[in-house]
Write a structure and sequence with these properties.
Order of helices and strands: HH
Number of helices: 2
Oligomer: single chain
Radius of gyration: 14 Å
Shape: elongated
Strand content: under 5%
Length: 61
């Protein structure tokens, strides 16, 4: 697989996770849910970096 395809897949995975969790947050009235926002951002960045790393490994090989 080529590099842009992997980045797009990981970006879609991270974005869909983020939008799903924020959708759940909008439907709940728990104030404690606000704590999860940095966790979501970290998860999106983690998915993006994993995509970058995998594409770099494939590029080396």
């Amino acid at each position: 697989m080529n590099k842009p395809l992997i980045q797009i897949l990981f970006a879609i995975a991270g974005f869909s996770y983020f939008s799903f969790v924020s959708y759940l947050q909008l439907n709940t009235l728990w104030q404690g849910e606000l704590i999860l926002i940095p966790v979501q951002i970290f998860a999106v960045m983690y998915f993006w970096q994993q995509g970058q790393r995998k594409s770099l490994n494939i590029k080396k090989n």
